[in-house]
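User: Good morning. I'm curious how zinc ion would be positioned relative to this chain. Could you predict the structure with it bound?
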Amino acid sequence: MKKTILTVLCCFISLSARADVNHYFSTIKQDPNALDAFLKAMPKGGELHYHLAGGAYPEVMLGLAATKPYCLNTATYSVTSGKNCTATGLATNDALYERYLQAWSLKNFIATTENNAEDHFFAAFYKFNPIVSDHSAELLANVLKRADSQHEQYMEIQVTPDNARSASFATLLKDKKTNAEKLSTLQKSKAFNDNVQRTATNGRNILTQAHALLGCDKNPQALGCGVTVRFQYYILRQLPPDAVFAMAVNAFAVTEASPDFVGINLVQQEDVPAALKPYKQQMQMLDFLHQHYSTVHISLHAGELSPTSVAPEDLQFHIHDAITVGHAERIGHGVDIAYEDNAEALVKMMAQQNIAVEVNLTSNDWLLNVKGAAHPLHYYLHHQVPVVLSTDDEGILRTDLTREYARGVMEQNLDYPQLKRITRNTIKYSFLPPDEKARLQQQLDEKLKQFEAKYVG
Ligand SMILES: [Zn+2]
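Assistant: Good morning! Here's the predicted structure, ligand included:
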């Protein structure tokens, strides 16, 4: 009898807690300011789609540019390492500083026929790349502080800590005909194996240095220290086939060897000929390598396409093939889903196989001009496909995870239970090993309980 009363009491309390946070949410969901404050404080699990190179705000990179000799090209706004140059002029020239911010991000961006947002976005990476290569640890420390301040626990970050040197091993593959020959050539090459090792070591160093910069040794409670980080090694999809192959082998090998790496990805603009033409061939490469490295997780940028950006034939199969041929366990973007062949069957398969979609609302608005009702977020949700929200490149896009959630509410009308499910999905569909995943899931549920308790009564 006593037990029954306790059970009823327990469930009544937990129901009323949920009702109260839901009630509060319903009163503020149309107020962008109150909503932002609420969402910033909400535990958000983490980010599963994050590029370190695009995550740093240009303000942070320009600050770093001033600490080491860099040559700034004031015509192209690109930066190169150089002993005889100095970037200090930026500190005293506000107008120039502002032009750099605009060149390195979408700040105040206005499209022209010669320069659309997508071109401006992808061009930015080449302008500041030397700073990303030289200062990955500083950038990571900055990113972790921002994540922690928004109550994130986990980040899966896309990097190439060998500065994509793996691509240069394409030269070893010139006369090799089959994938099997190519793979064994790389596996037998000492220089290539050294590069895999260097990737792992550099990755570890970036993490260690970032934690040192945050002061985590002396104070584990310091901002940024509580965020668990894992890497994905990314492959540049626009490179020639042998370079893609070499990068892919490096990706699989380092992920198998290093606990800091949990998966691989395929990046770069998807809607240009250099990425469209070899798409099927690249999926077959991944299929081949997956047989050799079957424990390595795969997430793929796929379907970052819109009906106006490519011909109809190119809209029909990218997500499908990423899953069925490329063995993707998660899909990055997945914007063109409705235009794929047999879209209904495809989303049903995704739901059945628990293939999560990493949705990047601000990115899709800027780069693909897809937003509001045209965005497939609700199409996925309706078919029970697991969804997460992420920023993609928060520094260039000038967003953060809180604002992605806010966009999800204001533009996509997500309710609190949907946000909560999305938050829980970020840990559930992470590539963390099972024991660590369970620990973070438990931690997240505890944090959500505490957060919701604030709205009781
Ligand atoms: Zn991305």
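Residues 2-28 form the longest helix (27 residues). The CA atoms of residues 322 and 328 lie 6 Å apart.
Let me know if you'd like a different ligand tried.
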